[in-house]
Amino acid sequence: MNMKNRLESFIRGWFPKEPKLPRDKLKMAESKVSKTKPWWWKPLWIVTLLATIVSGVAGFFLLDVSLARAVGGVALSFLGIGFAYYIRVRPSIRVNRALYILLGITPIGFVLWIIWAISGIGRWVTQTAGPGQSLLISWIVCYGIGALIGDWIGKRRNYILPMTP
Predict the structure, then answer these.
(1) Rounded CA gap, 126 and 32, in Å?
(2) Distance, CA of 104 to CA of 113 (rounded, Å)
(3) Which of 90, 109, 125 represents a domain boundary (last residue)?
(4) CA distance 99 to 154
(5) Could you read off the pLDDT of 101-140 as tens digits, one per residue?
(6) How far apart are CA 133 and CA 39, in angstroms?
């Protein structure tokens, strides 16, 4: 596959699959239909769990990490893997909407916050309201706009995650 086809297929994954859906009805038909999963789907999760366990044991024995930290790290990793498995295997509009909002808050809100600080708005608000209130206002404004943009992107995609099996 040449570079142009790869780039085109990557970009197409982010555009709505059904752009002319009615605005008042959300449809998640893609997740209700049982699709065949790729052959590597089950081994992926097994290898991920085993790699997490091996890294915890290696950290304890080889890197002189305390037992509590090693067990805590493995437990947190298991929680993350379980959440990732849940959103990929049992997708729902509610969970996908929350993910789109979080994905809007994290990169988009952070970029807006940096622009806020560089543009001089942050300095003006700090001089007007004070440092603590300025930080709170900037977080509310920038991350709130990021959440709205993330929700808007999700709505345009009918809350279907890219590369959903």
Answers:
(1) 50
(2) 13
(3) 90
(4) 9
(5) 998 998 999 999 899 889 888 888 888 888 888 889 988 9
(6) 53
